[in-house]
Amino acid sequence: MDEAALVDRCQRGDAAAFEALFRLYYPRVLKTAYLITGDIRLAEDVSQEAFTQAFRQIGRLRVPGAFGSWVYRIAVRQSRRVSAMERKERSLPFRVTPAERRELGELTEDQLLVWEAMGSLPEPQRVAVILHYFHDMPLSEVGRIMDAPEGTVKSWLHRAKSSLARELAGTRAGGGGR
Amino acid sequence: MSLDKVIKEALDARARDVHPSPDEAWQRLAPTVQHLAANADVRPIRRMGRVFEVALTGAVLAGIIGVAAYQNIHGRPYTGGGTDSPGGRVHSALVGPAASAAAPGIPPGTVLPDADRILDQAVTAIKTLDLSGAESGYQELRITDPELVFTCQYSPGGGGQEVPLLACKFGEFVNTMTGHALFWHDGTEWQAQLYPQVEPAVAEERYQTFSAMGENCPVGCGGEFRALRQSGTDLLAVVDLSGGSSRSNEEVHLLRRDGQYWRLLWSPVPEAFRFSTSPVRTHFPRITLPETGVDQFTVSYDDDVVETWVRRGDEYVPQDRADQILSQLRQEAAYPIFVPTRVPAGLTVLPLSGSDTYHAPKGCTRHMVVVSTILILAQSARSTWLLPCR
Prior knowledge:
The complex is a heterodimer of chains A (178) and B (390).
Chain A: H1 3-11, H2 15-37, H3 40-57, H4 67-89, H5 98-103, H6 109-118, H7 123-134, H8 139-146, H9 150-173
Chain B: H1 3-16, H2 22-40, H3 44-48, H4 50-62, H5 67-71, H6 115-128, E1 137-144, E2 147-155, E3 165-171, E4 177-185, E5 190-194, H7 200-211, E6 224-231, E7 234-240, E8 250-258, E9 261-266, E10 286-288, E11 296-300, E12 306-312, E13 315-318, H8 321-332, E14 350-352, H9 366-371, E15 375-379, E16 384-388
Antiparallel strand pairs in B: 1-2, 2-3, 3-4, 4-5, 6-7, 7-8, 8-9, 10-11, 11-12, 12-13, 14-16, 15-16
């Protein structure tokens, strides 16, 4: 059954149809929330809340085929809200521990550096990078999800890439050793 | 390798480190979904119509998901139940206990319709609670149209003019509860009103202070009632502004019941408690109310400083511990002790060796003494004392 039909069934009160949608999108939503928050437990909470909201509000979804981008939008907003709250309490764990580094053997030093530097990017830049690079979303779609004009998204990405490039260059110039 | 490729591969690799378990996650979510499907139908927005349209519009406008939503459900002091209420004025623009306080993330003056219907339903739900003989403490109730949960503190009242009273926050989910209301039994029936608002200037000040702390959900959204104490027609309410954090962030409000309406007499201005002055909550105040009466309360911070705030008329002021300390020093000192300013709250005394002079730091004012760590030095015969203001 296609996604639009599942959404239509949900809008008529079919919880089983929602389960199908949940199973389809949960992994990607969870990973998105994790990349934004940097914390798997927060990401799980955010995902649960996002799908709960989605179910409650599915009657508002006017284009049934757009469920995916709609639920991403909810999850991104939730992630940003939670991330902002958590950042007031503590630093979010973008730093890769030595133990994790061993497990992430497939990652190059540059990739590790990029991930760690992501944690220090301003939040809108980080989210734009995640949506654009992880989800392969065009700038217009990133803008829709983040409630920002396409030009602003472009600017965020440019600044983010500049920061990440500086981080990489600085580390290399400093010997790059870890 | 291009930077674009490095970024993408880094994100992909990090995401591969996440191992979603849809089965397990669905098991956690399913009861909620099934409950919604069975009880509120799967189209709550359509069914609830205006309430949620307003809520969501408010959320978008305010940029505060969830928080603004339920603020925007409210509108004016409750007028149901056949009782009169003052209405109008500042109270009609209510924003939760933060009128003064608990929901400073909402712009003052936000219009909040549909309160009467919600409070009517809550009163009906309260009537089903068995509060006879209940002691002070937590109570919870739910309504279904719209579907809201109320988490409350109950004060049974001690007779005389004191009344059985519930102070509640309410909202769609536990973590998006931003509405606040009072319910009390006047001897005949349960009455209700939204929690009162402070005057616009103070509300604005609080909003600016808390909003500056961050976007979306500034500290204070979802303020929760922690304790209540009544004396005659006065009510002292402790509100925790920590927004679900494990560390307390409490403040206190003094209210008075005039006829059939509670109004706010006093609440701390933003700089009164130390937590309000910093974007980083470092002191985590916890309020302790007296066993009886509303003559004073104490504020304990996590650095072991304890302030006692005493009632003066219809407000509370910090007991001047500086006076006590300096009085003691004067008795011990061989030389006069000079006090450049009064220090109203939260002093600790630390020895400062090697100095025989004192001065008030530049810019030390009574106002600043409350909010920052500026110093008063007092000289005694044996040592110079450093009194950090809290």
